[in-house]
UniProtKB/TrEMBL annotation:
Residues 32-114 form the EamA domain. It comes from Treponema porcinum. Signal peptide: none annotated. PROSITE patterns: PROKAR_LIPOPROTEIN (PS51257). The keyword Cytoplasm does not apply. Keywords: Membrane, Transmembrane, Transmembrane helix. One of its GO terms (cellular component) is membrane. This is EamA-like transporter family protein. InterPro entries: EamA_dom, EmrE-like. The chain crosses the membrane at residues 42-64, 71-91, 97-115.
Amino acid sequence: MIAEITKYSCVLLLSVFMSACAQVLLKKSALKTYATKIKEYLNPYVITGYGIFFLATFFSVVAYKKVPLSYGGILESTSLLYATFLGKVFFHEKINVRKIIAMLVIILGIIIFSIK
């Protein structure tokens, strides 16, 4: 039972990470200028980003078949960690003290919730 929940929790974490990657693609697209509105919405970044969102949603649905809802919210909070690091890597965003404190609080919350 615990091994099964762990396996599906990893699927949920993968889903959350995939969503963060899709957000990077959509932001990359938003930072560009397009000649027409149709090109703004039908370009490789947007199409791939929404395709990844679709797969991530599918994985989430599969994962929630075994992952208790009380764990799901905790695991999905890791998206803030992924978004921070992907923002740093792809957009050279600064990681300031507030972001570090926020990430530490998230990690601490996950640890405390996991202990019970």
